[in-house]
Amino acid sequence: MRITRRNNLGFTAVEIAMVASVIAILALLILPVFRQRAEEARQTAAADELQSLVKALLLVEADMPGGNFLPRLNDLDNRAYPDKPNDGNFNTDLEPPRARWVRGTPGSFQEIADPEYFASVVPNWKGPYIALKNATSLATIQTQFPLLTDQSQGPIAIFGGGGVDGASLTIDRYPIDPWGSPYMLFGPEETIYNVRTLYSLGADGLPGSGNPNPGAADYDRRTGILGTGDDFEFIF
């Protein structure tokens, strides 16, 4: 008796379709888990970065005579001068801050006068106070978030375009959260708590619960919108 054997040269279309269906079902089950884990990791990173920024701000306050010195976030990674500069030609990209928070009604970031700058700020600045993991230029933030950088009411002070510390627009690095939005620092008079507060806009990159067309008031912490929804808030 002669037995004829037929070699199986490949999978049938039905078999391939069945395997593809199983892979698709597994992907639908697993991908949401990975997305959730990735989002949880970003949330943890944002909370950790807010704490690191607050610690850096408190270190600055401890170093400065009399305390109560609140610099801009883009100044925290600037190093101290090895020697006290003797003129006003500041060409380095790592100079001490040229502006600080000044209390008022409302308060704001304002230029530091030269006598105070040379007498108090430069000798006592021990920067860098933090190594920024995720950061971008102030010029980029100004383009992407115009409401945050409006010099009349925005929470991110730039002082560019020939004003205070104009070179910081492109040289200084400003911290951004894991979703790509800039962290926001408010002085005491600019919050409903009358204390300093840091914010992240969260996953949606919008204040509060995510108004797709936010106005300047939505970024004003005194209105009670910022800090709600998926926003992160750190009061110190």
- Low-confidence runs of at least 5 consecutive residues: none
**How far is the N terminus from the C terminus?**
92 Å
- Major β-sheet strand ordering: 5-6-7
Q: What's the pLDDT, averaged over the residues?
A: 82
Largest sheet descriptor: 3 strands, antiparallel
The helix count comes to 3
Question: Approximately what portion of the residues adopt beta-strand conformation?
Answer: 5-15%
Whole-number total of structural domains? 1
Write down how many β-strands occur, each being a DSSP E stretch of 2 or more residues: 7
Q: What overall form do the CA principal axes indicate?
A: elongated
Order of helices and strands: HEEHEHEEEE
Percent range of helical residues: 25-40%
Q: What is the alpha-carbon Rg in Å?
A: 26 Å
